[in-house]
Amino acid sequence: MPRFLIEVAHDAEQIACARAVEEFFKTGSHFFTHADWGCFDGEHKGWIIVEVDSRNDAQAIVPPIFRHRAKVVQLNAFTQDQLDTLIRSHKP
Known about the structure:
By secondary structure, the protein is of the alpha+beta class. It has one domain (3-89): Alpha-Beta Plaits. 42% of the residues lie in helices and 27% in strands. It is built from five helices and four strands; from the N terminus they run E-H-H-E-E-H-H-E-H. The chain has helices spanning 14-27, 30-33, 55-61, 64-67, 80-89; strands at residues 3-9, 36-38, 43-51, 70-75. Strand 2 and strand 3 (43-51) form a beta hairpin. The longest helix is centred in the first third of the chain and has 14 residues, at 14-27. The termini are far apart. The model has no long low-confidence stretch (mean pLDDT 91).
């Protein structure tokens, strides 16, 4: 199943951080109650990784109030064979 990183930004004010975390907690979703946050380091975003069928499914998980600010990235890993093929395909 595809894996997606969901990044949700919020305003930098302390109250905005609290409201963002509260909104995530209110969803009751295991995904959001275990989000990682960068607020204490000045990076006002939350991140979660989910396994869902599609990018649209990942976007739909995000609370509606933050959906327009969410960035969804499909993740992948490389095998050594894939890396070798990629490098060979770019050699002159």
